[in-house]
Amino acid sequence: MSDNAGKANRRGRPGYDLGRLLDVTVRVFNERGYEGTSMEDLSQRLGITKSAIYYHVSSKDELLRLSVNRALDALFAVIEEDASRTGRAIDRLEHVVRRSVEVLVAELPFVTLLLRVRGNTKVERQALARRREFDRIVSELVEQAEAEGSIRPDVDPALTSRLLFGMVNSIIEWYRPSRGLRAEQIADAVTKIAFDGLRHERDRDLVE
Description:
Layout: H1 3-11, H2 18-32, H3 39-46, H4 50-54, H5 60-80, H6 82-85, H7 89-106, H8 108-116, H9 122-147, H10 157-169, H11 171-174, H12 183-198, H13 201-207
């Protein structure tokens, strides 16, 4: 049996699947911290044996890797969208910010876990490296927008990038789905607040 076939069978085990396993795992990691969570903790929360967890994954590290990669893959998919790759840099940047907010809301527990990793394990260091790559791409967009004259020249591009995603990332601290706010509403608010102040005055006139 090939590795792919074996994984397909493992993930198709009746009663629960890898997706449900990750949903519960991420909640526990966020509550207790990755290092503070044991496989026994996970088995108790899931109501299954540890051997049943190992039927799906090889280790706690693999659970972490799959969880943070779910968030990272969603963010990098935003970069590949047509609106992130074509048109003026300022418009591409605004699209990336808007869609990143929507990803954060849709994958809230997974993005929360990603933003809390500190590089204490190989998996965490790999995740941080991918985050830095995403940040680099955004910073380049900011620089391109400044070069085309769409961004105020009195704001440092590196600082702009940090502030933009500082605002986006802060959503994990207060957003709760039960409060009724939709992702589109939050994205509208973030982009309006950020880009009304960020756009060069003459560029705002063009938008209006």
